[in-house]
Design goal:
This protein is mainly α and 305 residues long. Helix content is 70%, strand content 0%. The longest helix is centred in the N-terminal third of the chain and has 37 residues, at 17-53.
Length: 305
Amino acid sequence: MVQTKGMSRVRPQRASPLSERVIEVFLFLCGAVSVLTTAGILLVLGYETIQFFSEVSLLQFFGDTEWTPLFAEKHFGIWALVSGTVLTSIMAMAVALPFGLLSAIYLSEFAPSAARRVLKPMLELLAGVPTIVYGFFALAFITPALQALLPDLAGFNALSPGIVMGIMIIPMISSLSEDALHAVPTALREAAMGLGASRLTTILRVVVPSARSGIAAALTLAVSRAIGETMIVAIAAGQQPRFTFDPRVPVETMTAYIVQVSMGDVPTGTLEYRTIFVVGAMLFLMTFSMNVVSQRFARKYRRLG
């Protein structure tokens, strides 16, 4: 080997112990921000929830189906808000699930590369539309269009915001599911086709089951997004808490109630004010439980895969 004269050997420079320690502390603080934020949220929700239940019994909260804490005759039945939240979320998933999965399968398995590079960003643009625009779209366009088909549909209802929420979360299901499908090794597809399976059979029996962990994660995030949506239901659902599963009538979701009370008309520290914290705590428990269940399913599918 010929060595060039005058060339010095380059030695890697190590960071000093002090700089390494500073970087380590900085990264630790960055990671601790989310933990501390979550802990602060839990402390605030927990304290106000305990204060609420010191005046309202669990039987009143879980055993009643009327929610009228701002009226003279007060009822604290949380099921009126839970039913509205679940109803609009079911409507949203009924729209988003088939369209999101089918679009993900098309983009991953059928679309040419050029079309995929164009269609996927265009689909993801739906996620950038402000939710208040979706709310007015539901109220001013979707509801009148549905009333032409359903004459008994109220001006404020659960069906219209549920459909628009489904349109809003289609990009989330489509994009994440398409990434999961695209990550399935090509060798699995070739092996299935080599055994005589058709392209459709390969997709339904091999590709989709192999990507079920990612698809389950996408569905969980989409459901959480639907449950936590605020502006669409606040504008188009009616803000009338009632225990019903009829999508044609006005309802109120948990998030819409929090917005209603947080407008500033309710004095701080009163029982009515504390209802927003107990509703927020219930919403947190719902989404947390759903995420725990989905993670268990995801781990199970990974083991089976």
